[in-house]
Write a structure and sequence with these properties.
mainly alpha, Mitochondrial coenzyme A transporter SLC25A42-like, globular
Length: about 325
Amino acid sequence: MAHSVTDHQSPLPVSEATVLAPSGQAQDLSSRWTAVDSLLCGAFAGAVAKTVIAPLDRTKIIFQVSSNRFSAKEAFRFICCSYMKGGLLSLWRGNSATMIRVMPYAAIQFTSHDQYKRLLGGYYGYQGQALPPFTRFLAGSLAGTTAVMFTYPLDMVRARMAVTAREMYSNIMHVFMRISQEEGIRTLYRGFTPTIMGVIPYAGITFYTFETLKKIHAEKTKRPQPHPHERLAFGACAGLIGQSASYPLDVVRRRMQTAGVTGSAYVTVLGTMRAIVTQEGVIRGLYKGLSMNWLKGPIAVGISLSTFDITNDLLLKMHQIGFSAH
């Protein structure tokens, strides 16, 4: 999931572009920055972050969709067994589907976040200024919801590939075809409701926390941009808080997505949640794998947010150099 010193700076590229460009060229540079630039930055940031933590992410999903008790020892054992049986690349099984999903997801999320901030800022009279807390949260929630709506079937495919052997699903298209033929097209959207319910607090809290920390940092240090390691730390804090708040719905989503291959009958959000609590308990069921998420989540979000900011800055400087050459 991915996603600045003040709210009118990165990831609001037009405003930052105005700062970077000479005064006579500020308007031209602002117009040169397009949604394509945001899409590219977001796609790259999401791809880098998810590739780094792919083995941990797959391990978490395996435990989320099973009734086996999670522990760090068991997780480590699973990773070792996967390596011994299938080699190093087996730890990245399903990562191709992850890339196909996360690149458009992150691109749409970051780009729509820019647009929602501008729209909400204009609507509430904060255009070009730092947005108030609730509006900051709302922009993040809307961005996450928009990204999920456009990319959800890819998330379903990725989950199926992560929990099955290569013999069952050979590639992404094979997953789509088998699900459509054997379970119906509607199955591609199984788990959509808990995903939306979870992404609203997750994306909202993540973006809100990241931008708030950068805003506080700017006020304390008087520096317009934090250093890369500071951005990474801010993103890690944002991811830790956001994912912890929405984790039970993530477990419910994975159970519903993989019901067709695990033999479980998870149909509704409440029914799935009730079954998990009854069979496994609240902590061991709904929060299964949370400690793994505390390890991989902050790393992924930190890398994603800081990579977006850094690539955003680089593109803006390239635009500025282009204007200087003219």
